[in-house]
Amino acid sequence: MKWILFCSFAFGALVVLAFTRNGERQPQRPNVLFICIDDLRPDLKCYGNSVVHSPNLDRLAQQSALFTRQYVTQPTCGASRYSLLTGRLPRNPVDITNEAIEKQVSGKPRTEEPETFIDQLRRNGYYTIGMGKISHSPDGYVYGYNDPKSSQLELPHSWDEMLFDPGKWKTGWNAFFGYADGSNRQGRQSKVKPYEAANVADEDYPDGLTANLAVAKLKELAGRKQPFFLGIGFFKPHLPFNAPQKYWDLYDEANIALTPSPTVPEHVSPASLHESAEFNQYALGDEQASLEKPVSDAYARKLRHAYYASVSYTDAQVGKVLEALKQLGMDKNTIVVVWSDHGWHLGDYRVWGKHTIFEQAVRSVLIVKTPGMKTGTVRNEILSSIDIYPTLMALCGIKAPATLDGKSFSSLLKKGKSADWGEHVAYSYFKRGITVRTDRYRLTRYFRAQEPTVELYDHNNDPNENRNVADANPNIIKQIMPVWEKGNTGVFK
């Protein structure tokens, strides 16, 4: 009898919880569709690049909050994603490496503190699915480029399902560096070009398979009453810049502009930059890049053409997923986030790659749409990728851990000025340097022997960071240095 009474009470409590005071059913917690795009700088039409064909992301931006000044904490894939997922600034040298997630998260026992915001959602009733590159590995498992896929998850407590279709490439890493014929960079000992235009279907490159997998999973999720988190990681435009020919055909190479920063910035040590080693390992490239001599204008245009074709290819895959979400009626209760893990130098300062703490490498794409948004808004406030974790918690009605370094920007998802945002800055770390981006300035200090070790860029007068004006502005450095110091977490000892 007591058991019957207990069950009746429990059922009644659930009924009460399911309805509002007015007798209306409470809406289910919003789903989250989180799309990560690798190496995508803000070169989209919605970000002001009129040459780039990105109709699907542009359409999403018209119904979303588009953030023009969101910065990642590290300009390298694994470390950037580690900070995003944990909402924390780096504190140890390993935190700024691509092995950050493998060393700091994978293989660790579950504790009271969630390993990522995805784990936090899972602990609070969300069904979590990942596919493609969400952490560092292209399929979410820890193994070397040339090794068979392992069974060790990078994020062991975050996922109910971790999915990937490697297709003809057989493993995630092979697919990540894959070419249309089923070969890959490492299998061909890097004797490959850094680009490819093949007359093939979208599914003949990995991201097309990922889009199809995502559409199929959304159809399956449509029948579930449990809220879900679906993370999708697209590879392109990461090197190699490979895309079906039809996306190359969208561009007239002659109309593609070159960088506004063709030389090394004034009063800057080459130690702040790099020799494009990742790019140069594609041994059959037309030319090698170096700080001493730029690639030819013709080759620079070809590479930009290849990058833009890869962007358009990924945009088409995003479009397939968003259309499926809409057709299934799931867009009405789904938060959509599109984020890129860092920018990329397309010949800026003669660099081809990421791995600097200049604006072009640490500024990335962030587009956020919440249920009910009909018209878009453009936000110019300074944001950091570590702010995404607390924001998602606020939007999903979940308490954020006290250990986070980020701040929720949920108030910025509406038009108009936010009274509670105030002055905000973004910190980035790499090459033994720490940089802080304020509303007007970027102040960078390096822990190294090569001078100068302090760089200051005035974005009002030099938005492309072509001139280090630190020597001429000691008073400004003195004003900003206390802010910079707050980001000195001890990562560089």
Give a written overview of the molecule.
- The chain is α/β, with parallel strands linked by helices.
- The chain contains 13 helices and 16 strands.
- The strands form 4 sheets. Strands 4-3-6-1-8-11-2-12 form an 8-stranded mixed sheet, with helices on both faces.
- It is globular.
- The N and C termini lie far apart (66 Å).
- The relative contact order is 0.17.
Break the fold down into its secondary structure elements and pairings.
Elements: H1 2-18, E1 31-37, H2 55-61, E2 65-71, H3 77-86, H4 100-104, H5 117-123, E3 127-132, E4 161-163, H6 172-176, E5 195-198, H7 206-221, E6 228-234, E7 241-244, H8 245-248, H9 277-280, H10 297-327, E8 334-340, E9 345-346, E10 352-353, H11 359-362, E11 363-369, E12 377-384, H12 388-396, E13 426-430, E14 433-437, E15 441-446, E16 454-458, H13 474-486
Parallel strand pairs: 1-6, 1-8, 2-12, 3-4, 3-6, 5-7
Antiparallel strand pairs: 2-11, 8-11, 9-10, 13-14, 14-15, 15-16
